[in-house]
């Protein structure tokens, strides 16, 4: 193959428009970050990010309603087929409430992220100047009252009664300084990586996308304004374990390259049908590849990072990560299983049975012992990953559509739930310990009702999206001859329902603690995000046919 | 010499890296072990490119190098951040989040 004869690959710009919009938007967002003064940056960045996400979503809708045929483009690097468009739509739709939660400044004054150093310096200067003025005023007998504001809604314990007044004021001024706006380009890059990840038709593209989606998330985890040590610890843990698992993914890629002489999914499938090379390369490669993918999806025994990172990261980042990463990772798992390994399914499925059972049992049993709401939801997500794996292992059209539906339903429920978690606050930030949630139903009936509804959705009670999704996945698995797994899944659902219901009981049937947390009244961003999640959860439970109809009849290319 | 021996070498390097990640305490050393794993993969890719007689593996090795470099930037900045607040990079000392 001489380089002179190799032709440029044709690029179907219409098909990959959503990816181009999001990644191009991310680059422009970096420029905005560099060029705009910090006073207007936050608002402009938020508006621009939302614009990019909505434009991407519109491009996906236009593409999927135009009836354009499924194509692989960029020399076979991306496959834009039915499932890819569904996953893109899901990711971009989930990104809207996630971005709103990330940008919220009403719950935590100044936002949930560490303060911008330039803005911080300026605020401190101003505070010093004011203090000097106050000192002059006090000497001349005037009562120089500080005008530093006292927390929007979470002032409890922060009015600095027993505190040195000047220092307290300076601290409060620090608190209100706007957080970093780098979060917006980070989110757009991560989102772009996710879009590529679930449409990648060869393993190398998938690996690059895996890194593009992971690296911004590692950084986002470490940016919390409060509980800095926990936040940074979660970033270190996520980073080291994430890099470790992506090395496994890469070694799997290398072995499969040795087996098939190509990393294209379709070529691997073809080679598996008849290759002279030893099968140990194929299955060794598959095993290592699956470790990397399962890690990202926080399945089963590869979940150890999940509770720590979900707890330590800022709650809005957790919401984005929990919903979108799971969608992208399961999108990639579905594609790899169906396209590359569909022909050898009977030889590897036994191992995945064990993984799915481990995931469901670990999630449910360890979830029972948790005392922190965010950790509890993390273990619940491990159990849900097991359920999702059930659908992904059934390499049938029903399994595919059920898994896609489950991802959409689970994503919206999770985003709304983390949005609500961020509202319950104590004197030093969010109060996530279970005891702090006691009697929330009396103190704040609306929040408690919303949490209850979402918990029921996670447990899979009828009239919520959780029930429809579980029903679809379990019946697909049953039809594909996985009866024992479905029985395990049903038992595990019952066990997991216990800890969801325990929180509900705690909220309604116990007395609120005297010094309990306050529930912040959310600003418009968080309200919209939570409402969207709750409404989608309800709609997918009551009238699921529209979305199920869309998910039905989608099939992977190749 | 048969190229297969390079596959064994790279598998060995990968295993050394993996064991290093599991047993070492310093975050920087853990990270270096991960880099060792990535470079072991590069050796595997190049060897398979030689065995298969195709160029793909060599090109993939370049991609891996670029990704590894990007990972270094992010990883070291995170480790720097935690070193500034904790004055240590030991992964055993970061133990606020558990159970």
UniProtKB/TrEMBL annotation, chain A:
GO terms for biological process: ATP synthesis coupled electron transport. It catalyses: a quinone + NADH + 5 H(+)(in) = a quinol + NAD(+) + 4 H(+)(out). It is found in: Cell membrane; Endomembrane system; Membrane. The gene is nuoN. Belongs to the complex I subunit 2 family. It comes from the Bacteria. It is a multi-pass membrane protein. The chain crosses the membrane at residues 15-36, 48-65, 85-103, 183-200, 206-224, 236-260, 280-299, 319-338, 350-369, 376-398, 404-424, 445-465, 485-509, 529-551. Residues 139-155 have a biased composition (Gly residues). Keywords: Cell membrane, Membrane, NAD, Quinone, Translocase, Transmembrane, Transmembrane helix, Transport. This is NADH-quinone oxidoreductase subunit N. NDH-1 shuttles electrons from NADH, via FMN and iron-sulfur (Fe-S) centers, to quinones in the respiratory chain. The immediate electron acceptor for the enzyme in this species is believed to be a menaquinone. Couples the redox reaction to proton translocation (for every two electrons transferred, four hydrogen ions are translocated across the cytoplasmic membrane), and thus conserves the redox energy in a proton gradient.
Automatic annotation (TrEMBL), chain B:
One of its GO terms (molecular function) is NADH dehydrogenase (quinone) (non-electrogenic) activity. Keywords: Cell membrane, Membrane, NAD, Quinone, Translocase, Transmembrane, Transmembrane helix, Transport. Gene3D superfamilies: 1.10.287.3510. Its EC number is 7.1.1.-. GO terms for biological process: ATP synthesis coupled electron transport. Belongs to the complex I subunit 4L family. NDH-1 shuttles electrons from NADH, via FMN and iron-sulfur (Fe-S) centers, to quinones in the respiratory chain. The immediate electron acceptor for the enzyme in this species is believed to be a menaquinone. Couples the redox reaction to proton translocation (for every two electrons transferred, four hydrogen ions are translocated across the cytoplasmic membrane), and thus conserves the redox energy in a proton gradient. This is NADH-quinone oxidoreductase subunit K. It comes from Actinomycetospora succinea.
């Amino acid at each position: 193959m001489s380089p002179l004869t190799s032709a440029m690959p044709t690029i179907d710009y219409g098909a990959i428009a959503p990816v181009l919009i999001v990644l191009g938007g991310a680059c422009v967002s970096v420029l905005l970050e560099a060029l705009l003064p910090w006073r207007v940056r936050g608002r402009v960045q938020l508006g621009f990010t939302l614009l990019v996400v909505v434009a991407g979503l519109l491009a996906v809708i236009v593409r999927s309603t135009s009836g354009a045929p499924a194509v692989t483009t960029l020399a076979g690097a991306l496959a834009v087929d039915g499932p890819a468009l569904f996953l893109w739509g899901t990711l971009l739709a989930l990104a809207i409430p996630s971005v709103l939660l990330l940008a919220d400044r009403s719950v935590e004054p100044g936002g949930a992220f560490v303060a911008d150093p330039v803005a911080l310096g300026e605020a401190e200067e101003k505070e010093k100047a004011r203090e000097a003025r106050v000192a002059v005023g006090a000497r001349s007998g005037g009562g120089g009252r500080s005008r530093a504001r006292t927390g929007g809604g979470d002032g409890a314990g922060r009015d600095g009664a027993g505190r040195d007044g000047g220092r307290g004021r300076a601290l409060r001024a620090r608190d209100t300084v706007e957080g970093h706006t780098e979060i917006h380009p980070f989110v757009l890059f991560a989102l772009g990586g996710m879009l590529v990840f679930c449409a990648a038709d060869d393993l190398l593209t998938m690996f690059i996308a895996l890194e593009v989606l992971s690296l911004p998330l590692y950084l986002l985890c470490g940016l919390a304004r409060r509980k800095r040590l926990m936040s940074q610890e979660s970033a270190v843990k996520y980073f080291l374990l994430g890099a470790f698992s992506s090395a496994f993914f890469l070694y799997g890629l290398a072995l499969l390259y040795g087996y098939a002489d190509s990393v294209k999914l379709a070529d691997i499938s073809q080679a598996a049908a008849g290759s002279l090379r030893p099968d140990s390369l194929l299955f060794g490669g598959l095993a290592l590849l699956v470790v990397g993918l399962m890690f990202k999806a926080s399945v089963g025994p590869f979940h150890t990072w999940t509770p720590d990172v979900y707890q330590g990261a800022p709650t809005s980042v957790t919401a984005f990560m929990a919903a979108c990463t799971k969608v992208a990772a399961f999108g990639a798992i579905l594609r790899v299983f169906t396209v590359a390994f569909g022909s050898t399914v009977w030889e590897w499925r036994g191992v995945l049975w064990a993984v799915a059972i481990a995931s469901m049992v670990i999630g449910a049993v360890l979830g029972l012992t948790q005392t922190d709401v965010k950790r509890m939801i993390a273990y619940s997500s491990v159990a849900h990953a097991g359920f999702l794996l059930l659908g992904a292992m059934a390499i049938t059209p029903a399994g595919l559509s059920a898994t896609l539906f489950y991802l959409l339903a689970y994503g919206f429920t999770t985003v709304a739930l983390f949005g609500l978690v961020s509202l319950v606050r104590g004197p030093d930030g969010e109060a996530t310990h279970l005891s702090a949630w006691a009697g929330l139903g009396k103190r704040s009936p609306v929040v408690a009702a919303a949490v209850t509804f979402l918990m029921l959705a996670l447990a899979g009670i009828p009239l919520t999206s959780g029930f429809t999704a579980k029903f679809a996945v379990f019946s697909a698995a049953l039809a594909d001859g996985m009866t024992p797994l479905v029985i395990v899944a049903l038992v595990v659902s019952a066990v997991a329902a216990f800890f969801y219901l325990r929180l509900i009981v705690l909220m309604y049937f116990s007395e609120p603690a005297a010094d309990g947390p306050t529930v912040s009244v959310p600003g418009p961003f968080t309200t919209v995000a939570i409402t969207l999640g709750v409404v989608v959860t309800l709609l997918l439970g009551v009238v699921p046919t529209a979305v199920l109809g869309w998910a039905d009849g989608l099939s992977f290319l190749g | 010499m048969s190229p297969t021996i390079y596959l064994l070498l790279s598998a060995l390097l990968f295993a050394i890296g993996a064991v290093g990640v599991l047993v070492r305490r310093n975050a920087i050393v853990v990270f270096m072990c991960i880099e060792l794993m990535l470079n072991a993969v590069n050796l595997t890719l190049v060897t398979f490119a030689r065995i298969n007689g195709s160029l793909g593996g060599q090109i993939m090795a370049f991609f891996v190098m670029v990704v590894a470099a990007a990972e270094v930037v992010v990883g070291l900045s995170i480790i720097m951040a935690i070193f500034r607040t904790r004055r240590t990079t030991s992964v055993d000392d970061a133990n606020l989040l558990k159970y």
